Amino acid sequence: MKRFKELIFYILTIGGLSVFIYFLIHQGSALEAGKSIPSSQGDGVNAFDHFVESLQENLSYPLAILLLQIITIILVARCFGYVCRKIGQPSVIGEILAGIVLGPSLLGAYFPEFSTFLFPASSLGNLGVMSQIGLILFMFVVGMELDLGILKNKAHEAVVVSHASIIFPFALGVVLAYFIYEQTAPEQVNFISYALFIGISMSITAFPVLARIVQERGLSKTKLGAMAITCAAADDITAWCILAAVIAIVKAGSLASAIYTIMLSVLYVVAMLKLVRPFLRRIGDLYSSKESLSKPIVGIFFVTLLISAWSTEVIGIHALFGAFMAGVIMPANVNFRNIFIEKVEDLALVLLLPLFFVFTGLRTQIGLLNEPGLWGLCFVFIAVAVVGKFVGSAIAARFVGQDWKGSLTIGALMNTRGLMELVALNIGYDLGVLSPEVFAMLVLMALVTTFMTGPALDLIDKLFKADDDLLAPKLEIDKYNILIAFGNPISGQKLVRLANGLTNKTKENVSLTALHLSPANELNQFNAFEYERDSFAPIQFEADRLGQKVVALFKPSQNIDEDIIEIANKGEFDLLLIGIGRSVFEGTFLGKILGFTTKVVNPERLYESIKGRNALFTLGIFDERTKHILRNTKIPTGIFIDKNMDVIRQVVVPIFSLSDSFLLIYIQKLIHNGGVKITLMDLSGTIRQNVEFKEAIRSIELVAPEQLMLVHENKMDKSFLQQYDLMLISLDSWKKVVESRSIWLADTPSVLIVKP
């Protein structure tokens, strides 16, 4: 009755008011008398033409163009970044390349009409402003990621190396500017401005890229990694101060005229450090959790950022220095910085920063380098940059006591320029100091020096083979070494429980290593520690409960599958245990028979299908990532499919062939260490027909007669399987069971599939 009343009310309200509105519109038409209102088009063709014309106007509207540009830029930048990550390069390389591809060097040269439609000259102003906002937010994040506390340790050595890595390339840049000034400098630019900008262009290190490379290579917790991070931090602060002074000189026209700007800049820095920083520190101490960090408090920090950026822009040293300085003086509280970085980073890096890369690409006209002499000069720029930065840093590092491997590694890392170089180059281009040709050369130099960092580090590792591998922990030869690789901490808990069941009574002879790899692009140096702690907390809790010692191994990774394989093989473990979540099987036949199917296709699996990793609706024994690990690991590997396993008391082991005999090793471990009761299912008569197999089982029965039962008949039904906590099965047998679509698969308990 209630629903009927609601329906009547709805009809009367909507219908009645609609009639009333129609009546008013009809009556209002009489009010048009005496007005010059164009008549509406009644012809269907003209109406369609009018619609098309309106659609074209909408497409050319500035907001529509800007939105289309942003969509295109983000998609292309992410694609290029993904490809670069796959080949072991920082994603920033791909994003810079995306900008060049979308600019006049490629898209404009080969598809000029489309380029003009997508990036009309009238729209570049809006794109430039948006990219500057992205840069301001990014420099704010860079400033926050600079942990000034690390400068206290090894401060002397870091300052020596970082300043040497600046002055060497700076001096070489000034020498180069002396020889090329007449041929390459714009008419209105004096020598001091040109020389200083070429010098600073040679001297910059990309701190964010360097920090991520150090993380990805597992160097974060080493002395060498700490030294490199410290040098880069000191380099960043010094280089940006020098750049601010250079900008002041360029704008003033001479060093004498720039003194007033520099004095005002010093006053600004003192005010930020002595007045604003203590105020912000107090707020940060009071509001350091997500619950307490309310919108008004966030507003205070954003206003500080904007005022700082505005101040430096007015002073004459560029808004980006103000954004960087605002980040540096943010409260040193790690929790606070981590929360704030998370709030800003995604917007800056994913949405706005790619606009800067494309804006740079639109300015980069590689086609201008149309003579051998210009390409020769480009190679000279690259050579001067590499020799100055790489050699200068390496020599200084060697002087302060680093060995040759460490010195060359620091040199290779400090030679990384990335985005920070592009920022300086764009400032020089905006100020008119750099010509389009020189700008294009220096952009290519930034690409080459960033691209070469990874290969250079690999070459150094090969030339100076380390005694210990940073990827794998030191293992004891006389112990049974197990490696568990987990993504989800809850899955990691189950794997620790499983490993304990295999080794409980021989813990003193067992080494258990828990490995967690995280996508490198999701971490910064502040949340890396927190993420590591949160990931391993459940693992450590479970290990403490079981009295099992666990070695934690955490590493940001560009390619998780390959790193798992490399660590397992290089570490010479005796067993690798990996978990598989339910989501891998959702939407597949195997998922259905295992009881994991949902009513809709799993988005994660759909995403993997779009990427081409696997088919959407296939039989699929494992996903491609698991298959890849199984194919390439050289040690016994266990794949664990969890179906809510809490304890391991009863285990069923189906035997299908003589090759399954290796499972007796794990059966003995479970019986001896876990006190587990094992039921052997001789489903194909293999045990009955093989004397050696039968004798091996009998020898186990003599030691533990109450814990091993051999069954020759096929009882694999739901009521039988429900009494077990775990099924232990070989990889070959698992494949046969899945391919034959055995009806009992849906009723299995948790499963451990072992590859010998």
List the keywords:
10-stranded mixed sheet; 31 helices; Rossmann fold; 3 domains; 756 residues; Na+/H+ antiporter like fold; alpha/beta; single chain
Provide a brief overview of the structure.
With 756 residues, this protein is of the alpha/beta class.
Written overview of the protein:
Strands 3-2-1-4-5-10-9-6-7-8 form a 10-stranded mixed β-sheet, with helices on both faces. It contains 31 helices and 10 strands. The protein has 3 domains: 72-463, Up-down Bundle (Na+/H+ antiporter like fold), CATH 1.20.1530; 478-639, HUPs (Rossmann fold, 3-Layer(aba) Sandwich); 643-756, Rossmann fold (3-Layer(aba) Sandwich), CATH 3.40.50.720. The protein is of the alpha/beta class and 756 residues long. Residues 467-471, 582-589 and 592-619 have low confidence and may be disordered.
Q: Main β-sheet, in a few words?
A: 10 strands, mixed
Overall, the morphology is globular
How many runs of DSSP E, i.e. beta strands?
10
Structural class from helices and strands? alpha/beta
The total tally of domains equals 3
Helix content: 55-70%
What is Rg? Answer: 33 Å
Work out the strand percent.
5-15%
By CATH, the topology of the largest domain is Na+/H+ antiporter like fold
Main-sheet strand order equals 3-2-1-4-5-10-9-6-7-8
Query: Could you name the CATH class of the largest domain?
Result: Mainly Alpha
Mean pLDDT: 80
Taking pLDDT < 50 over at least 5 consecutive residues as the criterion, the unreliable ranges are 467-471, 582-589, 592-619
Number of helix segments? Answer: 31
User: N- to C-terminal separation?
Assistant: 69 Å
Gross CATH architecture of the largest domain: Up-down Bundle
